[in-house]
Design brief:
By secondary structure, the protein is an alpha/beta fold. It is built from 10 helices and 10 strands. Helix 3 crosses helix 4, helix 4 crosses helix 5 and helix 5 packs parallel to helix 6. This is ABC transporter.
Length: 269
């Protein structure tokens, strides 16, 4: 892909779920099948596919939230697959996620500021007063107010919740962030604001990111390289401009056609 060093390397990743059919017989469902890709340090890699393609399951395995059936995930050369929860904890501050609905990840009974600050307490990186100062600075950077620190998640709009989710993901100064459909639940105008914020933050903090989405227009705007998933298989991977101008598979061509629809592409313009 590039002369740059890969921060994340995914090799032959596979996930098989046990299922039971209508007749009661046990079977297997292959959600992810031998997926491999690298994410270069400092870039945003897009993982794109329709619903049921396996993209979210792949993202969860990269994060260590789902154990793969087989395969490898390395972070900065260190193998993550097979680590105990205790060993994986050492990497948590370096690997974070922004959810599709960040509001659902907040406890409705605690102030958003205290929850954003919690990882600093967990990893014992600074004093309580220093943690509050750091949270306030980060809230300001993502477009929120100091008074928002003591408010609760239900008091915020969808766009504000995503900004808070971004702040929560960045509070530990991670190297790698997974963006799981980060704008799918937002109005088009708000989507554009969040995407621009993410691009600015990536540049400022030299972040490496994995964007999981069904919308190739977002990948075109955010990513240098991308992979296309279909029924658990990575059917195409390469520079985004090549995927757009010379798609090699029917599923990629279908995603490209969707980019040409203004209502789908508008948020990424």
């Amino acid at each position: 892909m590039s002369h740059r060093e890969a921060l994340i390397s995914v090799t032959d990743l596979r996930k098989v779920f046990a299922v039971r059919g209508e007749d009661g017989k046990r079977g297997e469902f292959v959600a992810v099948d031998s997926v491999s890709f690298d994410i270069q340090r400092g870039e945003t890699f897009g993982l794109i596919g329709e619903s049921g393609s396996g993209k979210t399951t792949t993202g969860r395995m990269v994060l260590g939230l789902e154990k793969p059936t087989s395969g490898s995930v390395t972070f900065d050369g260190n193998e993550l697959v097979g680590l105990s929860d205790l060993d994986m904890r050492r990497y948590r501050r370096h690997i974070q996620i922004v959810f599709q609905d960040s509001g659902s990840a907040f406890n409705p009974r605690r102030s958003v500021g205290s929850q954003i600050a919690y990882p600093l307490k967990l990893f014992r990186t600074c004093s309580p007063s220093e943690a509050r100062t750091k949270v306030l600075e980060l809230l300001d950077r993502v477009g929120m107010l100091p008074s928002h620190y003591d408010r609760y998640i239900h008091e915020f709009s969808g766009g504000q919740r995503q900004r808070l989710g971004i702040a929560r993901a960045l509070i530990t100064d991670p190297d790698f962030v997974v963006l799981d459909e980060p704008t799918a639940a937002l109005d088009v105008s708000v989507q554009a604001q969040i995407l621009n914020l993410l691009k600015d933050l990536q540049r400022e903090r030299k972040l490496t990111m994995l964007l999981i989405t069904h919308n190739l227009a977002l990948v075109e705007y955010m990513c240098e390289h991308a992979g296309v998933l279909d029924h658990g298989k990575l059917v195409e991977v390469g520079p985004v401009d090549r995927l757009l101008t010379a798609p090699a598979t029917d599923i990629t061509r279908k995603l490209v056609d969707a980019v040409l629809e203004p209502e789908l592409a508008g948020a990424a313009r």
